From TrEMBL:
It comes from the Bacteria. Belongs to the Thz kinase family. The keyword Kinase applies. The keyword Metal-binding applies. This is Hydroxyethylthiazole kinase. Its EC number is 2.7.1.50. It comes from Corynebacterium curieae. GO terms for molecular function: ATP binding; hydroxyethylthiazole kinase activity; magnesium ion binding. InterPro entries: Hyethyz_kinase (IPR000417), Ribokinase-like (IPR029056). One of its GO terms (biological process) is thiamine diphosphate biosynthetic process. It catalyses: 5-(2-hydroxyethyl)-4-methylthiazole + ATP = 4-methyl-5-(2-phosphooxyethyl)-thiazole + ADP + H(+). Catalyzes the phosphorylation of the hydroxyl group of 4-methyl-5-beta-hydroxyethylthiazole (THZ). The gene is thiM. Its cofactor is Mg(2+). The lineage of its organism: Bacteria, Bacillati, Actinomycetota, Actinomycetes, Mycobacteriales. Substrate binds at M44, G195.
């Protein structure tokens, strides 16, 4: 497998993309810090009055539906409109899709507006595609491979790169050709720290803003986050200290080290 996509890691630091985050209140601080760690600049601008204007100057936009309010829904709509007007890539993180009707309805409303990437667990991807009920809160009750057809359908319908997070991530894109890879990286301890998945959505936006190939950008973002998790787990073994070590590893892991900490394989038959 050609790992040249890892050049995107250096591209983020060189370009310092400005990432607008309309995200949930539980992870806002963590998300901002992880963006700074990877070399991006975070901006938590999510009000309806400012979101459209800011999206037009941002390098990338994250739409995360973790703790939405009526005002934030309107802010998200405005940000998406601004991003599309400026041809700015935006990422949809469908937190809790299928489990709650209001947010699922909103996510399906904005899907046709063209996210550059969709990142979620298997149950969220299945529910977003309308082929299942969703998980238990933010936890997946489905395996990654169970969501393959849903991911392909979402990518085909929206043009987005679709990433399914799990013990082995699956990243797919349906365009002139279908591209799909499995990525093995990270450590189970990442599941014991709030905000690691939501931060990954923001980091995906940073990589999309900095690299010309969206499919490669999303693989590289997942590789960066996963490799940092492996490094952190070698140093710390409890959630609090692990979280700090993970942030540090996001900041200083070299590109060459990432390659040695991940395995990317073509998803045959997809």
């Amino acid at each position: 497998m050609d790992y040249s996509f890892l050049r995107a890691h250096d591209s983020v630091r060189e370009s310092t993309p400005l990432i607008q985050c309309l995200t949930n209140k539980v992870v806002s601080n963590v998300t901002a810090n992880t963006l700074l760690a990877v070399g991006a600049s975070p901006a938590m601008v999510d009000t309806p009055e400012e979101s459209r204007e800011f999206a037009q100057i941002a390098s990338g936009v994250l739409i995360n539906c973790g703790t939405p309010t009526s005002e934030q829904y309107d802010g998200m709509r405005e940000a998406i409109a601004g991003a599309n007007a400026a041809q700015t890539p935006w990422v949809l993180d469908p937190v809790g899709a299928g489990g709650l009707s209001k947010r699922t309805e909103f996510m399906r409303e904005v899907l046709p507006q063209g996210p550059a990437a969709i990142r979620g667990n298997a149950s969220e991807i299945i529910a977003l595609a309308g082929t299942g009920q969703g998980g238990r809160g933010v936890e997946s009750t489905d395996g990654v491979d169970a969501a393959i057809e849903s991911a392909l359908a979402l990518s085909r319908d929206t043009g987005a790169v679709v990433a399914i997070s799990g013990p082995r991530d699956l990243i797919v894109h349906v365009g002139d050709t279908t591209r799909a890879v499995y990525l093995e990286s990270g450590h189970p301890m990442l599941q014991n720290v709030i905000g690691t998945g939501c931060s990954l959505g923001a980091i995906c936006a940073a990589y999309l803003a900095s690299w010309k190939d969206p499919f490669e950008a999303i693989i590289a973002a997942h590789a960066h986050v996963g490799a940092a998790g492996t490094i952190a787990a070698e140093k710390q073994h409890a959630p609090g200290s692990f979280a700090v070590a993970w942030l540090d590893a996001l900041y200083d892991v070299p590109t060459a080290d990432i390659e040695g900490l991940i395995t990317v394989t073509p998803a045959e038959g997809i």
